[in-house]
């Protein structure tokens, strides 16, 4: 009866939104699937390089494209083969018009992406500050104060005079008091408060000590604005807009080559995640619940981009129907953010796929997540008669707890095989043979 029920569910309209990833180990007929609800409760994928993590992600990407869903894929490897493969999936689904590409290495294929196009002054200040690295709180606070006042001026010009700005504008204004004067001159005399802010900013830059306190801000912005790909994030041409991509179910591939551009690519990735957070908040505030569309966000090499405030975003993303899939190599990679981050991430994602984990502590964490089961353990007594061990007839039978998935299993998984742990809608743990990539 249960098999009949499952067959009915697979042919129901809701089944069209399922993502099929492989076959459950030990079963002849049971496929491993992710439902829309499970995707919306977020997915965490870990695994050593070359063991099937990227293949699993490609199954999700291909099927979400075929289903007509909006999708954002962020990859730090910027592999041309991957770009062409995923673009082929888009073409096969007849959705080329929905495709938007941003690549640091393939600029001729890329659209521009203004990282601070949308948002209020406070939101944009937070986006910039949270995307950069700060060694001391003093310099962070000085930069934060400067950027907030500057954003108030620039946002007013954007909203009232349709004047666009970007990170290059921020760098120019933080480097030269003359640029502040130019911005202030565009604001009418009737806006007294804004005029005062412009004067305050100029006086701030005129003071040598205050000007020097912004050196960290200028240096980090220069690494983006003056880079090989700087024109992509400072262009006046309309390009990628995440909110529009969400509302129109666009397909966005963002390829950030961290091997070539290192920390600059990671900083750019953090800007994008901050932009994504603001889009989720805007969806909640502006789009009626019944009009919100399913939108998948897939982040490979997540450990290099993760920040503490990402956990809060996962909870809010659910209400805006953003399904988040994060992937990286080892659970322990997340400890560089904070000792608690890995636990908080696993607590906010309801499905975990783990391929081979080489570090024992990672395997033990995952095994602990899978839980234990109650079994009966039989013991028997023996006695030695000459050279032989003979059963004496005595023994015991007791109830014990054992791992559902032993750590040694996780440390010895072959290529293409993974542990699946689901907590929604019910707790389960089992092994999966992932389908080969095509």
TrEMBL record:
It is found in: Cell membrane. Residues 297-407 form the TraD/TraG TraM recognition site domain. It is a multi-pass membrane protein. GO terms for cellular component: plasma membrane. Pfam families: TraG-D_C. Keywords: Cell membrane, Membrane, Transmembrane, Transmembrane helix. This is TraD/TraG TraM recognition site domain-containing protein.
